[in-house]
Prior knowledge:
InterPro entries: EmrE-like, UPF0060. 59% of the residues lie in helices and 8% in strands. By secondary structure, the chain is mainly α. The protein has one domain (40-149). A hairpin with a 5-residue loop joins strand 1 (17-22) and strand 2 (28-33). Helix 4 packs antiparallel against helix 5 (132-149). It has a two-stranded antiparallel sheet with strand order 1-2.
Amino acid sequence: MPVMDDDIARGAKPANRVMVTASMLGRCSAQPLSSANRLLPQPPAMELLRLSTLFALTALAEIVGCYLPWLVLKQDKPVWLLLPAAVSLALFAWLLTLHPTAAGRTYAAYGGMYIAVALLWLRFVDGITLTRWDIAGAGIALLGMAVIALQPRAG
């Protein structure tokens, strides 16, 4: 999905690459591309799966990058853990640049997935059983993420 007109109006920069397509009238139009997988529009379910996977990886990188310094500061773990933490946070920042829309909208949608991944971390890393309220809250947050990520595109 190309950078949307409303995103450009808010300061998002379209990619330098351009795809030229023939329209039904024989005219040509140029569409900015941010990656090769944007050649064809994806069905909403596939787009949601792709975005969800990218959001989950982004959240995991952020959580690892913050958890390792927490271990160093709160549980007296070795200081060298700060090195993989820095790498993880750099990966987190890079993954954010792969999202297909303006930064503010990306952060808003990402928040839903972050909540879900943080709760999975709580369960499987910290070993704490989730409550029905945790699960319901994550479900609501993920629904909000889907609404933001799959909204109709301008133009």
